[in-house]
Structures are given as C-alpha cells and as structure tokens.
Input
Amino acid sequence: MRQEVHSIWAMAAGLPTYVSRAFATLLVVLNGLVLPLSAQNIFQRIDSVLTQNYHKGNVDTAYITRPKTKWTLTARLNLSGAKIESEGIDNGQHFKSEMTADYKSTISVGVSYLGFSLNLSLNPAKMMGKYNDYELNINSYGKRFGWDFIYQDAHNFTGWHDHEGMERIELPADMLSVKTLNLNAYYAFNSRRFSYPAAFSQSYIQRRSAGSFLLAASGMWQNANLEWDQKMELKMTNIGIGAGYGYNYVPAEGWLFHISGLPTFIVYSHTSMNFGDTRVPLHYHFPEVIITGRGAVIRQTRNLFYGLSMVYNFTNIGHEESLTLHNQKWRIRALFGLRL
Output
C-alpha cells in the first residue's frame, strides 16, 4: 500500500497544478489510513506547534523572555470601585455632587498553558445576596497590542449634593443607576525590550529595565438615571486617541515595578442630559480627556511569583462654568502564582 502511495506522488509531480493538488490530497488521506496517529502522537504534535509559537517572536532576550515552564497557576483577589462627580453653575449658583459605588471584591483562579488561559471568578458578597450589581472585566495584554474591556451595571451608588445657599443633601442608595462601558487599547513601539504582559499577565519575564512610547485609543459609553425630585437621565459616548509612555523598572533580579500613563483627547463626543422635561446642554470644552493609568509591583522567586497591580480610568467632559462631569473607575489586584 505504501508503494502505491509513493507511485501516486511520483505521477502527480508531472501533472498540471490543479491535478497535482488533487493527488496530494489523496496521498494525505491514504497516509492517514495506512499510518493512523495515536492520541499521544497528536497531542505531541500540537504541543510542539504551540511551544514553537509560544517562544518565537522578535524580542531582545537580554531584556524580556518567556517563562521556561509551560503551565502557570494563578490566584487573584480583585477589588474595584467607581465614582461620579458633577460640578457647575445653576442660575448663577454653584453646585457640586459626588456619588460612589460600593466596592466590589472577587476571588479568581486561573490556569494557563503556553499562553492559553482559563479563569474562574467568584464574588462572595454576590453569592450571599449582599451585592446585586454586575461587572465584567476582560483584558488582553500582548507583547505589542493590548486592551481592557470593563462593563459595569451598578445600582448601589451613595453620595451627596451641595448647592450654594442650601444644606447638603445626602443621596441614599438606589437613587442612581449607572451602566458604564470603558474600553482602552495600546500599541507598544519598543516591544522587543518592554513587556506589558510581564507586569499584568506574567506570560513574559522582564529581566532588565526598559520603557516604551505607546499609542492609545479609548472609549466610554454611559447611561445614568437618577430618581430624585425629578428624574434625571444622562447618556454619553466618548472616543479618544492619544499617546503615552510605560516603564518597567527592574532594580534587582526577581523584581519588577511598572508604571504607565495613556492620556487620550476626546475626538468624538455625543452627550444628552435631561432633568424632567428640561434639557441641560453639555458643551465641548478643550481639553476633554480619557486617561488610563496602570501600575504594578511583581516579585518572582524561582517558580513562584506574587504582587499587586492597578488599572485606573478617568474621564473629564464639560466645563465648570456650566456643567462638568468626572468619571473614575479603578481596580486593584493582588496575585499569587506558580509556574510548573
């Protein structure tokens, strides 16, 4: 049978291209019938391809490298929060308000094999019925490209409102409901020596200090409803582009300190705000910005690593002489991991 397969291949060599391809397909099928692969061989071939792709890349290995092991187990404790501030002038009188969402904490565990990860997160307060809000965080930190996707549906904002000539008004929970989507992305120019993943996903190891200029794009969508003396509704969409800088500082072997800032200027803004039947204008005023800041401290000893990381989003739109809005969203993460 094998001789027949080789004869087919010899015949195909002298035939037109489309005929040769047909014979080549037949050859693969016949080989599969004659030499069936075991499950172990299939896994070995897949593992070989994944390993090759995992370690290839145009990097300066004096600065960044891949971990030598294939498996990574990680446990994380996440704490996140949000705040909305407004300030402006109403009929010649100054006003200011601040609303803060309850902190959200989650526990997550993850397993990664050659860059492919699976994670499971649990919110103890939500499981016990003490937390009814919803939040989704998805992020991908690549060597050159990376992004964050953060969606929050919160109903537990509490705060206060100050109006000139009036006593402070305390704002209890369930008065304000907010749906917010934050997006941000980066492109690292010096990806051969500077690694975002080393600080945030630990799929690389930063061996020497290096920095990089970064291109950035940001987006924010928000829908807020306030049930007070009269209903208030806010809808806004903002898109920004800009540039920033990131730096990985390695003071000694096994240590990594990361800091980066990505300011983006809003180039598209669509906002509408209504108090009852009254529409409040929110005029564009330069500079309106979306800023993403990140920081991390990572310690690695042999196959163990642990540390802290932080992501902070800030959006500023409007003007204090009429109405300005500040949105803040942050997440702090404590992590512990083992490479196998």
User: Anything to note?
Assistant: The CA atoms of residues 198 and 204 lie 5 Å apart. The chain is about 15% helix and 55% strand. Confidence is low (pLDDT under 50) at residues 1-15, 26-30.
